[in-house]
Amino acid sequence: MSRRRVVVTGLGCISPVGNTVAESWANLLAGKPGIDLITQFDASAFACKFAGEVKGFNIADYIPEKEARHMDRFIHLGLAAAFQAVADSGLPTGDALGGELATRIGCNIGSGIGGLPMIEETHGELVNRGPRRVSPFFVPASIINMISGHVSIKFGFKGPNIAVVTACTTGLHAIGLSARMIEYGDCDVMIAGGAESTVSPLGIGGFAAARALSTRNDDPKTASRPWDKDRDGFVLGEGGGVLVLEEYEHAKARGAKIYAEVAGFGMSADAYHMTAPDVDGPRRSMVMAMKNAGVNADEVDYLNAHGTSTPLGDLNETNAIKAAFGDHAKKLVVNSTKSMTGHLLGGAGGIESVFSVLALHHQKSPPTINIFNQDPECDLDYCANTARDMKIDIAVKNNFGFGGTNGTLVFKRIV
User: Terminus of the chain with fewer CB atoms < 10 Å: N or C?
Assistant: First the structure.
């Protein structure tokens, strides 16, 4: 059976740098970070007091407030991104779908952690006021597959309805696995991506206790500095990124706008350590994705990296890129948009895939900001501090997660 081609026909993004795709992209190109002191709770006692928060967001712009009260914030952010992506795609919804088409459209929007703030809040109610104060909406308000569930119900999509949970590789895996489902005929369209909102006492406290977070509290906007010699940890971010993936002939038949092709997908495991990275796992993920796409390493122009700003992670990814691309690694333009958004955990692969597709579509690489003193061991072209107009025909996107899980996507430009 020949593989069916999969293309991107819709984009949605709620991020620390903007509440729409256009706003987020403009701020990325301008090098404007969305990282500042935390406002969602009093973080004065915490080792890390800042994050990449979504600002000025109102879920009532998308769904009734009464419904929204029964959902954790990660669901709000994922739903909003999905609403944007579906609108951008021009897909019919509701009664306009028709019976057969409805069964050919599915959802796969994951989260790495899910409703942590709702869990914290409900635990407080349980301890302080007793079991009768636990909301009957608690479970559906906090479990990870509810973004996909709500999207399905809102739009009448009756195809596969699932959610991936693979730590910080969640959003990318959701997109890659959704593309596979279309390739093999399980559906014609998938609404895919990831969302996260863990800027909460347990979220910040847990990662700070693991010494994973930057503690540059005196200058939050420069705290996320991938590949800089003085990087000291990642910055927690929140948001959601969703893509509409569609079988190529299906998209052409309805006259859809096509942003790019999802040409390849690779996955691997380090089998090494629960949190520490290893070079060979990411290397194999990239090699597998390029093989799946039918492209050679020297054909790739741009790589949107995992690039978290951790001392070990950034060096490890650099070495994995060198191992996967050989001599061509030095000719790649490598970029980390986390320098501006922070790390969205399970939502990272969603928004960063949106950004990778936009890089192809607009022929521009966003900058990696805050590279003041590039680590000599991290010696690739990281598009430091200034956006770059460039020819991009093939883009690679990496994400890696705790547990040693790795994922890579290959996007191709369609002219």
Answer: C
